[in-house]
């Protein structure tokens, strides 16, 4: 792995190649996608782009967000025509999972770069080493991943700026289990207390360390000071097994010993058995799982 990739993030290769990450992680809400597509249209206007756009996705994982760019839900505005998507992912297991997930949906995936004939290319790379030319991208998306640039913010900001066209957006988006409504879903906070104790100093979105970028000279030099921020709260349907898989797909849990993972699962199942849930279908064990999606849109100068 590159020195700019956190060693614990390497655990994603395991969950990526095994299919666990793909199975366990949720997609993103249409409301957030509408904001992103609006930003893409603004980028087209800013650069007077003729024809389709080029998009880079960093930390693309198994392509959960990528597939929304290919087959988006109904949104306003619609996504503009895309010429090429370059998905960049450092983990070989994740790239394997990316190709597998898209191939199952009959979506061709290339591995040769921007000049490859396939519309979607999956390539090795990092936040501070992006395999495309200067000012190539009409937009860059980082879904559920930018916090892993901790310790390398300056280089990441410079490299992202190199790739972005002037007036084009850097989109940062995260899904997070929502513990802000304990009166309806008291178990969410208790579960997070069970597994977050294993973070062991790894950079996590919830800690907000990544927000240090806004005070850096590289940010002030290369990006517009004002950025957009949106939050979407929603309720997903879940089962206890699904909740367990979601937790086991977290990098710092995947990296634990088998004994510790068994203990985490035991603690989670015991907590879920005791706690009150808001049911979708109690007979089938399906209940509501509250999620929040945070979206930041940052503009290249």
UniProtKB/TrEMBL annotation:
Entry's family note: Belongs to the methyltransferase superfamily.
GO MF: S-adenosylmethionine-dependent methyltransferase activity
UniProt keywords, alphabetically: Methyltransferase, Transferase
A biological-process GO annotation: methylation
Pfam families: Methyltransf_11 (PF08241)
Transmembrane intervals: none
InterPro entries, alphabetized: Diverse_substrate_MTase, Methyltransf_11, SAM-dependent_MTases_sf
Gene source species: Arthrobotrys oligospora (strain ATCC 24927 / CBS 115.81 / DSM 1491) (Nematode-trapping fungus)
Full protein name: Methyltransferase type 11 domain-containing protein
Span of domain Methyltransferase type: 57-171
Region (Disordered): 1-24
